[in-house]
Every structure is written in structure tokens, then in C-alpha cells.
């Protein structure tokens, strides 16, 4: 059904005159007559009768009018759902407790007027595919993994270098340390069940292991962060890496944890050098959503680059 003909019908019904409807729609009276005639042929009924005071609805026209108005309302909602700035800004983060989620919470606090959809895709390839298709507007990802350059049109802005810290239980041999060096971690078992081959974070840790001789184990199922914390707290021989901005409830430097209250977990700074995980915002350069520019400006204003002195990232990381 021709929505412009439906719009013309509603305008004639509301004004009561073809001439007045033509003026309101900025078209000729002849065009109004042609649209109404075409709509009547589509429906197979007469919609108006000529009267001394203008055009009056027939019984069929009166029956069709509320549905015509609803058709126009549905069309407006359909357009609004896809129009940049009228739909929520869709942003992908790796997990709900990581740095990306924290950055988006800060953005929402600063800009509560902007509608957000925050979702979690699996890896960088899925995120890039979703950005190219328009399914999402942006994604917080580490880097493009080795041999996988970003496709044409995908921009990457490095927004946060997150230092990695060692998370251990109260009976671990390093539990009393105020800090540890990467060299001191050689020989200790670092358990990270979330490591998945082919992902950008696996590429990051593979290079970390290769350069510093660490032992990272990915054995066993990944039951989520709560199960990971339980295991680390109960197993003196295990440790794990966690970003500085993940689980901010845990205090630094060997102090007992605040959450979970009965775990006694410690998070210890890693030094000499400090491995940092580089979070970047990925987006399509042609994305017109106005809130995307607002998000980029917010990240520029609120995130500060980590001092590169004494830090480590793989050589293939996209530079600042």
C-alpha cells in the first residue's frame, strides 16, 4: 500500500477539503485527487463523497481512517528504529566485570540521556563482523590479533592500557608480597580457564608466556568468574591474572579482600615490566550515530594513557 496515498487520505479526512490538504502537503490539488483515486482502486471502495462544504468520508472511509492513522504511526516507528540518533547506541564489551563495562558505566553516568544497548560478543572477529553489518556501533577489544589486520573502514582508537595484576588466595606462596616481578612468576601455575584458541586475548597471553617463560594453564571448564575466585581462594598452588579495573572491590598489595568477604583473596601488582592489556574502541568510520561521537569524546576526556615506561605489550599491538 502506498503510504503517501494513505497520508494524503488522512490529511483530506482531517481538513475536509482537497484544496486544503494539497496546501498542507505542499502538492497540487490534482496530485491529491490522483492519490485518493489510486488508493480507492487499491481498496475497491469509495472513500469520499463531494459535498458543498468539501469532501466527506463515506462509511468505508470512516472505517478505514483509524487503520490509516495506525499505518502512519507504525511507519514512523519503523523509520525511527533505524535512524541514527533515534535508536540506542549498541556497544559490545567482552564481559560484565571488565574494563569495557566500567567505561560504559561511566559513560552512562555522564550521559544518562543517551539510550544504550550493551551486549557481549565472543571475539574480535565476531565484533568486527557486527560493526561492518551495522548490528553494533562499537566494540571494546584489545587489539587485532597477529595476521588479522582490521578490515577497510574499521577504525581503532586505543583508549585504556590496563595493568595486569596477580590474583591469589591467602595460602599462596606469594600472598604476603607487596608486588611481584614477571621473573618471580616463572614456575608458578597461573590458571586462566577463559583462554580460548583464536581469540585476541589468547594471542596476548601466548606472547607473554613466550617472552617471560610463564606457565599459564587453561585446563578445565570455564564456569565464570565466581567459580574462578572460589578455586583460586581454595588452591594454594594456583594464581590467575586479572586486570586492574576488573573486580575493583579487591584492594592492592596483599591486603585481604573485601569481596567475596570470606575468600581472603589478594591482588598483587606485577612489575619489571608491568604487562598491560591494551583496550581499544573499534567502530566503522562511516557510522553516523551521533552518540558514537559523544562516546569517543567522553573516552578521550576521561581516560588517561598508562605510562609506557616499565610496561609490556606484544609487538603486534596497535600503537597509540
Features:
single chain; 320 residues; alpha/beta; Arc Repressor Mutant, subunit A; D-Maltodextrin-Binding Protein, domain 2; eleven-stranded mixed beta sheet; two-stranded antiparallel sheet; 13 strands; 21% strand
CATH superfamily of the largest domain: Periplasmic binding protein-like II
Model regions low in confidence, pLDDT < 50 over at least 5 residues: 254-258
Query: Counting H and I runs of at least 4 residues, what is the number of helices?
Result: 10
| Overall geometry | elongated
CATH architecture of the largest domain: 3-Layer(aba) Sandwich
The top level CATH class name of the largest domain: Alpha Beta
Radius of gyration from CA coordinates: 30 Å
Number of strands: 13
Proportion of helical residues: 25-40%
| Count of structural domains | 3
* H-E string: HHHEEHEHEHEEEHEHEHEEEHE
CATH third-level topology of the largest domain: D-Maltodextrin-Binding Protein, domain 2
Largest sheet entry: 11 strands, mixed
Question: How many angstroms separate the termini?
Answer: 53 Å
Write structural notes for this entry.
- The chain is an alpha/beta fold and 320 residues long.
- The protein has three domains: 3-82, Winged helix-like DNA-binding domain superfamily/Winged helix DNA-binding domain (Arc Repressor Mutant, subunit A, Orthogonal Bundle); 89-160 and 278-312, D-Maltodextrin-Binding Protein, domain 2, CATH 3.40.190; 162-275, D-Maltodextrin-Binding Protein, domain 2 (3-Layer(aba) Sandwich).
- The chain has ten helices and 13 strands.
- It has helices spanning 3-15, 18-25, 29-43, 59-82, 99-110, 124-133, 182-185, 200-212, 225-234, 290-302, and strands spanning 48-51, 54-57, 89-92, 116-119, 138-141, 154-168, 180-181, 189-191, 215-217, 238-243, 266-271, 274-284, 311-312.
- Strands 3, 4, 5, 6, 7, 8, 9, 10, 11, 12 and 13 form an eleven-stranded mixed beta sheet that branches. The chain has a two-stranded antiparallel ribbon with strand order 1-2.
- Helix 2 (18-25) crosses helix 3.
- It starts with a helix and ends in an 8-residue tail after the last strand.
- The model is unreliable at 254-258 (pLDDT under 50).
